[in-house]
């Protein structure tokens, strides 16, 4: 069944050129398949993220993609994004917030949006 295959998060965007600037320049992702007819496939760790233009861009109000990072890299990744994205805060039962970072006994996380409102997350599990 499907449990044997890798899922590919798929993100709808309004402007593919603006999205590429964000995903490549801000997040540092590298396109893995330039020849995609209607979008760009990025490799991230052992997975992939597909970004494509759609009239439905920005309609998802939940987390679309999460990046799990190792403990020793979390602060470095967050520092690299500070000033480039706006970290979001919200009611998260059991978590405390400090400078845009949520923390509880199990994780530290930040959430932010791409230019089309797709919500991305970076998490380290404690």
Automatic annotation (TrEMBL):
<dbReference type="InterPro" id="IPR004360">
    <property type="entry name" value="Glyas_Fos-R_dOase_dom"/>
</dbReference>
<protein>
    <submittedName>
        <fullName>VOC family protein</fullName>
    </submittedName>
</protein>
<dbReference type="Pfam" id="PF00903">
    <property type="entry name" value="Glyoxalase"/>
</dbReference>
<feature type="domain" description="VOC">
    <location>
        <begin position="4"/>
        <end position="125"/>
    </location>
</feature>
<dbReference type="InterPro" id="IPR037523">
    <property type="entry name" value="VOC_core"/>
</dbReference>
<dbReference type="InterPro" id="IPR029068">
    <property type="entry name" value="Glyas_Bleomycin-R_OHBP_Dase"/>
</dbReference>
